[in-house]
Design goal:
Layout lengths: L1 H6 L7 E4 H9 L8 E8 L2 E6 L1 H13 L9 H15 L10 H5 L12 E9 L2 E9 L1 E2 L12 E8 L4 H21 L3 E7 L5 E8 L3 H8 L6 H18 L5 E6 L7 E6 L9 H25 L1
Amino acid sequence: MAHEEKTGQKVEASLITWRGMITKLMSAIFSDRDGFEMNATLFQDTIFLEENHEYKLTSQARQSRQVSQPGRPSQDMMSFWGYKFETLCLLPATWDETPREYIENRENEIVNNHAQYCSVVRTGIGQHIMILGGEVDAVWDSKPTDDGPINWVELKTSADIRNDRDMVTFERKLMKFWIQSFLLGVPKIIVGFRTPEGILKRIEEIDTASIPSTVKRQGKGTWDGNMCINFASALLDFLRATITEDGVWRIRRKERAPGIDVFRVEETGHGDILSDEFINWRIKLAMKQQDAEKEAALAQT
């Protein structure tokens, strides 16, 4: 909305959502273990899509009740390792602007998962223009002051690869890593490989664009980047053909289910997906554009 207020023009897009939603849709063709639920609504010929928060909370509660296998760390512990890796890798400013004391004391810094960049991009898959927002871990150098490209970096952790089974597990992770970075135009991913006890063993820098070809050439054939894109394009075609009226629609993939269900759960309105402030702004903007078009037509007569 801030961008539209600045430009005075409506943002034209088939879909507006978070990167995480498209990541789930793109990876669905090769990943059916985890289910998902999303809510969607159509407003001014744009589909707005968000996670079904009730489903997310239920899933998180179920995961928290699961007991880890003996000798294996809990999900909370592995999340902590990931945030600790970020704390060790990142600085609040460029190297020359950061005090030596802070640099040398990073091992003792309290882990914080709130410090993130938020990137908003206009991109497309197939015939569909999308506005996506998503969190990004860092920039390689510093954010440019102009509108030039940003050297975003994503930080990931993974268990070190010791055998073929570990390789397959990591290859499946690479699919999510690639999709997440591909969608926001993140050129580089840094992966920290750890022991089962959480000790960092090595670091690898991966060029995002090279991941699909590397997996195809050297991997176990667990996924294909072109198929992910083509599947997402076809699925977006289906959503555009299905979600054609007001109301709130549910997009659901049950765990280990072969298909994705799309159905309407509220006949009217937009649920909690769109705020009243945004709807009122769009209505006012449309009225202004109509008035401007009338004035332009009168000027030509």
